[in-house]
């Protein structure tokens, strides 16, 4: 039985291994990484799927903005190879969108496969004047309004606005 829950501090290693298997080292060169780097996911919007003690899926949403328009950037969404096609990714996606809506967010954007994300309501509508902070494929830049009209007038390059990862205290050598 798959359980869906908030990501915990102890999930970091398993999540990073899952993402390495799913996307490889190229994931750190994506435009989305410029928004995620050095930041924490949006509060309450880092989710995992577990099969017993095993982490089998992960999705995170990040606080971003285009001009004065607040948005969430989704990604990455990953499911363990052994579990693909079982609905875990769809369940994580729906849970993330439902939570984002409940938390009062207006829109989610992502760079991904339109045929996959279309079923959740994502499209290129309202995305024409938005851009990622680096190379991206326009046809894969998709948005989902959680609140009607949330993408109206959205323009400019997405910028990170989320919480910074706290600085780690320096250790003193004895």
Q: How many H/I helices? A: 4
Q: C-alpha Rg, in Å?
A: 16 Å
Query: Multimeric state of these chains?
Result: single chain
Query: What order do the SSEs take from the amino end to the carboxyl end, as H and E?
Result: EHHEEEHEHEEEE
Query: Percent helix among the residues?
Result: 10-25%
Which geometry do the CA atoms define? globular
Report, as a whole number of angstroms, the end-to-end distance. Answer: 49 Å
Fold blueprint:
Layout: E1 2-6, H1 12-23, H2 31-36, E2 46-51, E3 54-66, E4 69-79, H3 88-102, E5 107-111, H4 114-117, E6 130-131, E7 141-145, E8 156-157, E9 159-160
Parallel strand pairs: 4-5, 6-8
Antiparallel strand pairs: 1-2, 2-3, 3-4, 3-9, 5-7
Features:
single chain, 174 residues, alpha+beta, 7-stranded mixed sheet, two-stranded parallel sheet, 4 helices, globular
Brief synopsis:
This protein has helices at residues 12-23, 31-36, 88-102, 114-117, and strands at 2-6, 46-51, 54-66, 69-79, 107-111, 130-131, 141-145, 156-157, 159-160. The chain has 174 residues and is α+β, with helices and mostly antiparallel strands.
